[in-house]
Write a sequence for this structure.
């Protein structure tokens, strides 16, 4: 069971690392597209109607796709002062409780984002601009990112329960 869990964790974490690189690439592409629009608009006096939505889609995607990578490094905002004030055992339980609550929230959001993706896909939703890109695109990016974030948090909970730190094991066993 532990070998399967460790294999699953490795696969998910490698995929999350890859998504982090993809998110960085999306930001680079967005930067290039914005620069192109600035030159087209102010040098050639020929603005484009697709650029704003294109960049919004890229930035939404990069934000959500990078979330699991950030969580994998525990890079999200936390209250670090509590780490210093509380004993290690309490910090472990505080972190575990926080992860469980985060997982519940992220799973809830994930379900509803995929629901909106399905409605946008089936309903053929498009934006109201003249370019009119499909709205399922940002929902797919959001759903993928939230799914991976939920899996990453689940991995952290599982790792904390299956592989507790040495000092936590000793405190639990009373050694």
């Amino acid at each position: 069971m532990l070998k399967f869990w460790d294999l699953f964790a490795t696969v998910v974490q490698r995929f999350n690392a890859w998504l982090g690189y993809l998110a960085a690439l999306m930001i680079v592409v967005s930067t290039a597209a914005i620069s192109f629009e600035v030159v087209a608009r102010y040098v050639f006096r020929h603005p484009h109607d697709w650029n704003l939505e294109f960049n919004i889609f890229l930035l939404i995607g990069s934000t959500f796709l990078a979330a699991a990578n950030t969580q994998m490094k525990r890079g999200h905002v936390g209250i670090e002062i509590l780490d210093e004030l509380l004993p290690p055992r309490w910090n472990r339980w505080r972190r575990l409780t926080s992860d469980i609550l985060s997982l519940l929230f992220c799973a809830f959001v994930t379900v509803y984002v995929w629901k909106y993706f399905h409605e946008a896909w089936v309903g053929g939703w498009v934006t109201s601009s003249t370019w009119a890109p499909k709205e399922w695109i940002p929902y797919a990016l959001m759903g993928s990112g939230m799914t991976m974030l939920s899996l990453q948090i689940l991995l952290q909970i599982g790792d904390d329960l299956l592989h507790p730190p040495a000092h936590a094991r000793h405190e639990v066993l009373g050694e």
